[in-house]
């Protein structure tokens, strides 16, 4: 459904010559897939979204959406696309109904069709009786729901969402994702979503990890976590500097690979007994040693750190 | 496309009327200005070639122009607010051509200014001028042409601006002097030659003539007056030019460096 080949994107920057935000990016999203894109801050996720949504034009590389070239068939593609941006895109000085109306007008929807869809789509939001209220009076999470409803009104085949659950409480976040899941089942929709929350990404069919503008890894959450081997040992310390200390000790003594994230260390494929013995002198520097199944988050830390170090 | 334009223009109006302070401010300010200066200069005022015209009447077209220019241009400031609030990106990804955004904004802002000018036109029966129905239509035509050009200019500037304060600064540095030097406040007949040139080059002067002349002179005289015809042509060129610039600027999509 979405195919990106050898895409580069540069921003003009005053001091430096230019800043590369996307670097020879290749990415394929199959029809009716829920694809979650994750990656550190500044890795180019929003840049990719602005290109896919038609805000910025790519200069090289090739992007096709449903087989259509993104530059040559802009108008057609825009109709197929629903976009939820990282920053809110509602008019706070207008009511919910007025915001939806403008969307309907921009997407060439008949008023009766708009009305019918609003009746259908608003039920899950709990906002049906607040249509006449100003968007400014909604809570952040409510406004996000409104944005999602709005993005879906013209029944896009592709839904792009840039950190859509930003600012939602855990309950709303789950509701929101359940909703997205249901929609996808009901409507044959391809979803490309970015997220920093791994519990969210794990719900996707496919996950991609973006780093400095290129795709480091992609696959189903299961496939990806398998890459890390079956189990990991996690050493929890109380302070970052303790973690750093233990990391150097361990790598010096054994040569095994250790990943650090704040006050936490992850060690691959070592049995707990050996580790206990190794660390017996440093009891006061850590709280516990546990064995965990690797998660997407582990993979993320693993491969981004590996990349930074190389 | 047409629905998109109407929808966006309507949005400008709804937002304007919802912000009570904006409505009161933009209507009250020129009226106070007009009455204040009118009564201050009333007795001593004597414009060459306009004997018997009091200052209140002399200043009237200037105030009309001020209303459409300033409120039209300042309404385009919403372009900057929209961008900063993230609203603009939502519109830019919609399947409407980008020129619809220009027309939507410009028409919306223009109507806001024109509505206020119409309110002022209601005072004509109480003034010592008798433009007649046809004359008033000509005034309205002039107001529309002037509003179109300067609102498009406002849009163009706002599109390239990041902050609303920068926009205010540019406008008070350029727009206010242009308006003052247009002859809106004082007749500039005995001005030095360089000032006369400046006035001739000043698009606001021409816009002013389009509004002032039909108020004082019968239409038959206007259509044979070279001054009026030149003003008309200049104002049209100005309006079309500004609009074209705005359209071509907006059509330029952000591109990889
Ligand atoms: N308008 C811009 N001008 C210049 N550089 C930019 C611009 N927008 C983004 N960048 C740069 O491009 C790179 C990628 O930014 P982008 O916003 O795509 O990252 P992101 O993955 O969305 O990050 P986040 O997780 O923080 O949202 C960064 O180095 C950023 O500084
Ligand atoms: Mg981002």
Describe this protein's structure:
Chain A has 310 residues and is α/β, with parallel strands linked by helices. Chain A has helices at 45-52, 74-80, 96-106, 111-121, 140-152, 170-187, 198-201, 221-226, 240-254, 272-278, 296-309, and strands at residues 2-12, 18-29, 34-38, 56-57, 62-65, 68-69, 81-84, 158-162, 190-194, 206-211, 214-219, 232-236, 258-261, 264-268, 288-292. In chain A, helix 6 links the parallel strand 8 and strand 9 (190-194). Chain A is globular and about 75 Å long. By secondary structure, chain B is an all-alpha fold. Chain B has one domain. Chain B contains 12 helices and 1 strand. In chain B, helix 3 crosses helix 10 (203-216) and helix 7 packs antiparallel against helix 10 (203-216). The longest helix of chain B is centred in the middle third of the chain and has 28 residues, at 132-159. The radius of gyration of chain B is 19 Å and the shape is globular. The two termini of chain B are 30 Å apart. The A-B interface holds A 8-12, 18, 50, 53-60, 75, 78-79, 81, 83, 85, 87-94, 98, 101-103, 105-108 and B 3-4, 6-8, 11, 14-15, 18-19, 85-87, 89-96, 253-257. Strand 4 of chain A pairs parallel with strand 1 of chain B, so a sheet runs across the interface. The complex binds adenosine-5'-triphosphate and magnesium ion (MG).
Count of individual helical segments of chain B: 12
Spatial gap, N to C terminus of chain B: 30 Å
Number of strands of chain B: 1
Number of helices of chain A: 11
**Strand count of chain A:** 15
Shape estimate of chain B: globular
What is the CA-atom radius of gyration of chain B, in angstroms? 19 Å
Return the average pLDDT of chain A rounded to an integer.
86
Largest interface: A-B, 37 and 26 residues
Residues in helix, % of chain A: 25-40%
Structural class determined from secondary elements of chain A: alpha/beta
Low-confidence segments of chain A, given as residue ranges, are none
| Quaternary organisation of the protein chains | heterodimer
N-to-C SSE string of chain B, H for helix and E for strand? HHHHHHHHHHHHE
What overall geometry of chain A do the principal axes of the alpha carbons give? globular
Overall average residue pLDDT of chain B: 86
- Sheet-strand content of chain B, in percent, reads under 5%
Order of helices and strands of chain A: EEEHEEEHEHHHEHEHEEHEHEEHEH
Q: Helicity of chain B, in percent?
A: over 70%
Strand order of the largest sheet of chain A: 7-8-9-3-10-11
Q: Please tell me the total number of domains of chain B.
A: 1
């Amino acid at each position: 459904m979405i195919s990106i080949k050898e895409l580069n994107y540069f921003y003009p920057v005053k001091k430096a010559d230019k800043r590369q935000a996307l670097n020879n990016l290749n990415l394929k999203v199959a029809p009716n897939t829920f694809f979650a894109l994750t990656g550190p801050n500044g890795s180019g996720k929003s840049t990719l979204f602005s290109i896919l949504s038609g805000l910025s034009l790519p200069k090289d590389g090739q992007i096709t959406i449903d087989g259509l070239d993104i530059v040559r068939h802009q108008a057609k593609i825009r109709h197929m696309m629903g976009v939820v941006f990282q920053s809110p895109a509602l008019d706070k000085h207008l009511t919910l109904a007025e915001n939806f109306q403008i969307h309907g007008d921009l997407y060439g929807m008949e008023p009766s069709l708009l009305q019918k869809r609003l009746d259908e789509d608003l039920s899950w939001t709990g906002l049906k009786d607040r249509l006449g209220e100003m968007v400014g009076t909604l809570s952040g999470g409510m406004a996000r729901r409104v944005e999602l409803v709005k993005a879906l009104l013209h029944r896009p085949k592709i839904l792009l969402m840039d950190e859509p659950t930003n600012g939602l409480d855990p309950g709303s976040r789950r509701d929101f994702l359940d909703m997205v899941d249901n929609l996808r089942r009901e409507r044959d929709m391809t979803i490309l979503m970015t997220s920093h929350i791994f519990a969210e990404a794990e719900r996707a069919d496919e996950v991609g990890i973006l780093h400095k503008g290129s795709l480091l890894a992609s696959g189903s959450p299961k496939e990806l976590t398998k890459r890390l081997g079956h189990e990991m040992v996690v050493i929890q310390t109380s302070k970052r500097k303790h973690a750093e200390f233990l990391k150097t000790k361990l790598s010096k003594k054994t040569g095994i690979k250790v990943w650090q994230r704040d006050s936490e260390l992850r060690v691959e494929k070592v049995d707990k007994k050996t580790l206990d013995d190794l660390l017996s002198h440093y009891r006061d520097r850590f709280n516990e040693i546990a064995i965990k199944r690797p998660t997407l988050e582990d993979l993320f830390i693993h491969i981004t750190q590996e990349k930074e170090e190389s | 496309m047409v629905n998109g334009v109407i929808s966006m223009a309507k949005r400008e109006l709804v937002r304007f009327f919802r912000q009570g302070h904006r409505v009161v401010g933009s209507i009250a300010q020129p009226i106070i200005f007009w009455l204040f200066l009118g009564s201050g200069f009333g007795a001593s005022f004597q414009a060459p070639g306009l004997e018997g015209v009091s200052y209140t009447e002399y200043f009237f077209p200037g105030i009309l122009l001020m209303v459409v220019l300033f409120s039209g241009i300042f309404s385009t400031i919403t372009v900057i607010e929209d961008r900063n609030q993230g609203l603009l990106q939502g519109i830019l990804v919609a399947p409407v051509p980008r020129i619809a955004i220009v027309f939507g904004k410009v028409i919306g802002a223009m109507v806001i200014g024109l509505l206020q000018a119409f309110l002022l036109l209601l005072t004509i029966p109480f003034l010592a001028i008798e433009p007649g129905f046809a004359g008033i239509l000509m005034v309205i035509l002039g107001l529309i042409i002037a509003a179109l050009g300067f609102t498009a200019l406002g849009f163009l500037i706002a599109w390239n601006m990041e902050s609303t304060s920068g926009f205010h600064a540019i406008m008070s540095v350029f727009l206010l002097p242009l308006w003052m030097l247009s002859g809106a406040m004082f007749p500039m007949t005995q001005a030095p030659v360089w000032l006369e040139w400046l006035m001739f080059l000043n698009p606001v002067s021409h816009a002013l003539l389009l509004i002032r002349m039909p108020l004082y002179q019968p239409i038959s005289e206007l259509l044979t007056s070279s001054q009026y015809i030149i003003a008309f042509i200049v104002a049209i060129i100005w309006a079309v030019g500004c609009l074209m610039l705005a359209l071509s600027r907006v059509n330029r999509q952000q591109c990889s460096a």
